[in-house]
Amino acid sequence: MKKIFLLLLLLQSITTWGQERKQYFIGDIYDSAGVRGIVVQVKENGYHGLIMSLDEIEEYWYCNPSNPYWRMVTSASDCNNGMHNQEIISEIINLYNLSWDLFPAFKWCKDKGEGWYLPAINELVEINKAYHGGEIKKNKAAQIAFNRILEENGGKPLQNSFTNYLSSTEITGEKVYTIHFESGMFAYGKEESKGKMAIRAVRKF
Fold this sequence. Notes:
This protein is of the alpha+beta class and 205 residues long. It has helices at 2-20, 82-96, 104-110, 121-131, 140-152; strands at 29-32, 35-43, 48-52, 57-60, 165-170, 175-179, 191-193, 196-199, 202-204. The radius of gyration is 19 Å and the shape is globular. It starts with a helix and ends with a strand. The relative contact order is 0.19.
């Protein structure tokens, strides 16, 4: 009986390990433990990476209705790790007893749950790369396929035309980096005022 129990325990451990080590590819839907998104970057042979939210919203990076002309320099300037930028915003909020409502784009991402954040500019570049099938030039067929996956899974397609997406990466007290997915340019994007723009949340897995 003891041998049977140990064997069952071993089989259960193997099954659990296999579930935890599921391999993902760009364009897959990640759906685990209540966390759901589309895979936009993979590392360690697909066992870890970055997912993007299926939905989006248009929000402000920073918004202070009581003093719209006041600019805050936050030093949230990390180009590679949006979570680091979000932690800087959190420190400022706690230090000065502010509200997350002053940073609506960050708040929307954070409110999705543990681990979600507003992507840094180079994380938006990874999304852009996935959107264009990994190519350095515009790939309309890849765009259509990527957006079809989003829509088939209840999500909203990435916007083209004149829409820019906000990053969490600040340049100055008035500027933040954005990116335009339609162009297929893997650049930092344009310097824009901290105005209302499209945002997506990301999360590491």
